[in-house]
Structure formats: C-alpha cells, structure tokens
Design a protein that fits this description.
Elements: H1 12-31, H2 38-53, H3 57-77, H4 84-100, H5 114-117, H6 123-137, H7 146-153, H8 167-175, H9 177-180, H10 183-210, H11 221-252, H12 270-273, H13 279-299, H14 305-324, H15 328-354, H16 365-388
Helix pairs in contact: 1-2, 2-7, 3-4, 3-6, 4-6, 10-11, 11-16, 13-14, 14-15, 15-16
C-alpha cells in the first residue's frame, strides 16, 4: 500500500510520497505562496512523512526536542571554551544507540527496553548536524528558531544517510525556497534523479544480485579478493546513488543539497579521497573535529607540528570509525584510514622538508599520478572490506 512504512529511498511508497510533495510545493508556489511560507510548508511535509511513514515517529520528534533543548541550554548557560562537553551532551542519544547495538540484556533487566528508545531513523546525521550548528552559532547572539532547526535536522531526502549540510547554508535556501524552484534547478534534478536511479537500483542491485550473493566463502584468497573489490563497487554505487537521489529531490523543491561523491577512485592520496568520497562527512570531520583538536594540541604546545597533525588526523578517523558503530570492524576500518592519512601526511612533510619527492624521486609526474591512484584504490578497497564486517 502507498501508506506502508518506508524509509527514504527504500520503497515505492517513499517515491510516491516525495512525488506528491514536489507537486504540492510547486502548486503552493504558483497559487498560495502568500498564504503559507516555504519554511512552514516544509515543516508540515516533513512532519506528515514522519507520522505516516516512519516506524517510530515520536522517537524522532523526541530526539529533535532533546537536541533543540540542549542547543538552547548550552548557548544560554554554558560559557566554557571547551567544546567536548557540549559535543558529548548532544551526542548522548547516538552514543547510547551505538552502545546498545552491541550489548545484550537479560529479560529481568529493567534496561531491556532501552535500546528501542534510541533506534531512531537518521539519529547519527541529526546529531552531527546539531553539533555543527552549535559550534558555528555558539558565539552568535539570538535564539535559533525551532521550525528552522526542525527542517534542518530532519530534511527528509537527507534524513537517513546524508549528505551532511550546514545550518546557515540550508536556512538560506529555505528562506529563498520558492524563488529557488527554477526550471534550471528542476532540469538538474531530473539529471540527478536518473543517475541516482541508475546507480542505486540498477548497478548496485546488479552487483549485489549477480555477484555478491553468489560468492561462496571457502576461506580462500580468491574469495576474499573477489568480495573485497565487488563490495567496494557495490557500496559506491549504492551510497553515491542514494546521495544523487537526495540531491535530486532537493533540486525539485529548491534546496541545494551538497555534492557527496566526485570520482573518488581517481584520488591520488587519502586527503583527496575524502574530498571525493562522502565529501560532506569529510568536511564535517575536518571542520568540527580535526581543526579544533589540532588547535588544542598547538595551544598546549604538545610535540612538534607534524606530531600534532598526525595525532589529530588519526583521532579524527578513529572517531569516524566509532561514529559508524562500536563494532570492531567499523573501528578498525576508521583507524586504518587514519593510518593512511598519517603516512601520507608524513610523506608530504618529508618531501617539503627535503625539497624533493622522497619516494618517487624524479619519476615522470604522469606515472606518479597513475601509481598513486592504483595504490590508493587498493588501500581503500582493503579498508572498506574491513568495514563490511566480512573479514572478521
């Protein structure tokens, strides 16, 4: 049925709802923009989606109220410069969810029903949005409007797995929502929609159904290598397809959702890879964790500059691993990306210090690029294979 429960982009019911929402936005723009503002219309559509389609709508609403109350309280009463406490306070529901996902409880334990409280659609992305919002706005006067926060935290196309957006950029789009709904942006939306459907529902599904499910785990090197590269391609097309669909539906209603993927397999180093793969998360981690952590180490005059950089890099990617989940394969995968980044950063430091390429020497730049792409591709494939949980 069209009113069956449906997470974003998981079932035809979702696409039907979004289609009706897009038509509604364009009808209101043409005939009723003076009667109802864009931000109010967006909040109504989001609330209707949550109540009708999400399995636990009141859990989501409760989380938004918690995050909004924390933001208000922190901005009003917390005057400390240390941002660790505010980040932990805002992340508390997510931390409970990650923890309870790996802990089992006995029937006579009063905690036994607790995990369900924190099983909320999009909890990780909403928490990260709230943390970014707090850091950006903590020194600015004035109150954050609840409707603006509700729309930002629970924007339906990006609710489940992003991309991550910034509050100021998003609210500017909402402020000019009806004006942004142009034929050019709609055309762009159709392009993104078709590409997203191709990636997620044709290429990713074909890889999964025709290859992944038929690989037999006999413990051989051939099996592990086959699964590693196949899973990498499946994850890319599935995740990039989802991101393109989220961007497309944003285009249709005048919201410029950030680009998340841009030819990541052509990256020559870890830094460039994270500017091309899940770019919104990479930018978030850089702005709200790596930079503050590096500045903290610098203020404390801890070690040399390269040591501070590498420590902040490793801890940033370790955080990414824990953000994905407290299971060991997520944590090790994140840390491995941290090791890659530390190695490349130290290599770059030595090249700059010695004023020469300490690895490739005077090799032709074209060959250096080709070799770097090949190395990076295989390194990413291995880290993503660990992420899959198939290795252990």
């Amino acid at each position: 049925m069209w009113f069956d429960k449906a997470l974003p982009f998981s079932a035809p019911a979702f696409f039907l709802f979004m289609g009706m929402a897009i038509v509604l936005f364009h009808l209101v723009k043409r005939f009723g923009s003076q009667l109802i503002s864009y931000r109010i219309l967006l909040s109504i559509v989001t609330l209707v989606f949550a109540l009708v389609y999400l399995p636990k709508p009141f859990h989501l609403i409760g989380l938004i109220l918690y995050l909004y109350a924390c933001l208000g309280g922190l901005r009003k009463w917390y005057e400390g410069q240390n941002i660790i406490f505010p980040m932990l306070l805002l992340a508390l529901p997510m931390l409970f969810m990650k923890y309870f996902s790996i802990v089992s409880f006995t029937d006579d334990n009063w905690w036994k029903n607790t995990p369900g409280i924190f099983q909320i659609t999009g909890i990780s992305y909403m928490v990260f949005r709230a943390i970014g919002l707090y850091i950006d706005e903590r020194s600015k006067p004035g109150k954050i409007n609840f409707i603006d926060f509700f729309n930002f935290a629970s924007f339906v196309p990006t609710l489940l797995i992003g991309p991550l957006d910034r509050f100021h950029r998003f609210t500017n789009d909402v402020k000019n929502g009806y004006q942004n709904m142009t034929s050019a942006l709609t055309y762009q939306g159709w392009n993104n929609l078709l590409m997203g459907l191709l990636y997620k529902f044709i290429l990713a599904e074909a890889i999964h159904r025709l290859v992944l499910v038929h690989l037999i785990d006999d413990g051989s090197l051939v099996y592990h290598m086959s699964y590693m590269y196949t899973y990498l391609l499946y994850l890319y097309f599935d995740f990039a397809g989802y991101s393109l669909l989220a961007i497309a539906f944003g285009n249709f209603i005048g919201i410029h959702v950030p680009i998340n993927f841009d030819k990541p397999f052509l990256a020559v180093n870890p830094k460039e890879f994270w500017k091309k793969w899940h770019k919104s998360l990479g930018d978030w981690l850089n702005d709200y964790f790596f930079k503050p952590l590096f500045m903290h180490f610098t203020k404390k005059k801890w070690g040399t500059s390269i040591r501070r950089q590498n420590s902040a890099l490793f801890l940033t990617f370790a955080l990414m691993g824990f953000w994905n989940g407290f299971e060991l394969h997520y944590i090790i995968s994140g840390m491995l990306f941290g090791v890659y980044s530390v190695i490349h950063n130290y290599y770059f430091y030595q090249c700059k210090k010695q004023k020469r390429d300490v690895v490739f020497g005077k090799l032709n730049e074209r060959w250096i690029r080709i070799i770097s792409i090949v190395i990076m591709f295989h390194a990413v494939a291995f880290a993503i294979y660990i992420f899959s949980g198939k290795l252990f």
